[in-house]
Amino acid sequence: MVSRVPLSVVDFSSFYDNERPADAFRRSVAMAQKAEQLGYSRVWYSEHHNTSSIASAVPSLVIAHVAAHTSSIRLGAGGVMLPNHSPYVVAEQFGTLEEMYPGRIDLGLGRAPGTDRTTLARALRRPLNGAENFPSDIVELMQYLKGESPFPGIQAVPGRGTNVPVYILGSSLYGAQLAAKLGLPYSFASHLFPPMLEQAVAVYRETFEPSSVMSEPYVIAALNVTAADTEDEAKRIYEEMVRQHILAMHFNGRSASDGEVAQLLASPAGQHYASMLDYYGVGTGDQVADYLQHFTERAQADELMLLVKGPTTESNNRSLELIAESWGLDPDKAAGDPTTWRR
């Protein structure tokens, strides 16, 4: 029997033309409920700012809302862009979540701003060089979560003693090296930034230093998926998702003619945008499961994080169902943190 790694979901909380963010949050609840029912391990939400179609600007609030409507699935940030925040405030926020929903909260940390430079400097009022403090900010944050504050007389309440699991997110060698040095689990954003996946994972595994958190390395690799009842239907959805990706990246979401999109796809810029989706499992449930198995081996992954791409809630739910069935997910075995055995 083929060994299967845990499957999880990343949710951008997207909303579309003539919709409000509230529609995205309703979809996020529905997706998490479906993922929980089917046996997926966790759902993560990413921090984005000044983005016209993504509602997850504050992952901690989205997590709290979704957690109130689910019962067992792990929920987390994938991630909090730490240079945008005080480590102390993040410890309070995720410590609060852990106290409310014990054993269900994850904290993925990234060093990118999750927005453009102007929004970062003017609206968020954060220094452009804030990412330089990322390593020390992680250490400080983890100290608050352990109850070992670096400042006498100052504790994160809630937060201290919760030991919320921390993950380092990345799409380059930097995050891999940092996660290895700190002895933390590593999540690679290969669903959007695929080129460095294999090299980054190799560096992480080869240089990993055991810590009080982890005795062995743990890799989560993300990729895009679209599953449907027929291969032709999956291909049709895939082509539409690539088109929407191109529109979002180049045209900032505005409408464009087929000719404009075709011209862009034939250009170096269009090929670059399309290459961001290089890791993409498409087809029937069995075909996607086969792709996931090959990807697991290529990425040396201990867990896969799926970005389910489709035009409707129904199509996304169907993708989750087909993949879960073909992968052999078991809802009774999904609860709990899959990294626990390495600690």
TrEMBL record:
Pfam families: Bac_luciferase (PF00296). CDD domains: Flavin_utilizing_monoxygenases. Residues 21-297 form the Luciferase-like domain. It comes from the Bacteria. InterPro entries: Bact_Lucif_Oxidored (IPR050766), CmoO-like (IPR019949), Luciferase-like_dom (IPR011251), Luciferase-like_sf (IPR036661). Coiled coil: none annotated. PANTHER family: LUCIFERASE-LIKE MONOOXYGENASE (PTHR30137). To bacterial alkanal monooxygenase alpha and beta chains. This is LLM class flavin-dependent oxidoreductase. It comes from Kocuria atrinae.
